[in-house]
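subagent[fold] <- orchestrator: predict structure for attached chain, return tokens only, no commentary.
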Amino acid sequence: MPPRDSASQPVPPGAKKDLSVKQQRDERRAVKVAVLKKQQVKEKRNRIVGFSLAGLGTAAVLALVVVTVVTSGTPAVDRADISIEGLETFDGLAANHVGTTVDYAQSPPVGGDHAGAWLNCGVYTEVIPNENAVHSLEHGAVWITYNPDEVTGADLDALYDEVPSTYSLVSPFPDLQAPVVISAWGSQLELTGIGDPRLQQFVDKFWQDPNGPEPGSACTGAIDGPGKIA
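subagent[fold] -> orchestrator:
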């Protein structure tokens, strides 16, 4: 058998010194190409990571801007700065627990001696006892009373939607001097109807008023009055 051409023989490792000039040049070129490709892959990966981080940074900045606008755009209003036209206030109210009915100076009452058990806050469709309701006012509740001859049907439903879900009482009050009267401990306001914007002003100023006799005390866990629906 004739001997094979040595140029076609595979080159064993470590035999670079036996390679031809062309083979050595090709090998160096292949090494450079491999290094270049590896570098290009690395640079591409770094660009992707950089873009991702930049995107996250932009999103974080936008989120911070949104939070800042939302929180600073509607600053909290100090209760003391809320002025309400027609507001009546009453000082020097007693706060003793009694076991009898009380002849209150205001109607609906805004404070004074009251029953030992508070009325669970909520919506009532029937007249509730003054003495228990006053105890709820002592705990920071607001009491929205309405004239059942003037506020009915859809208007009454709308009134239910206007009041806070906690620390509030809603009940009918026959022969009320105004369509709606809202009361807190030592304060009262006569409203022209359910659309009177002063209702919300009163709530903002007196709901869970920290200056009341027993702010933060419970408005649940005591007794229900008649006709409680919520």
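orchestrator: received. Logging for downstream: Confidence is low (pLDDT under 50) at residues 1-11, 13-17, 60-74. The longest helix spans residues 21-73.
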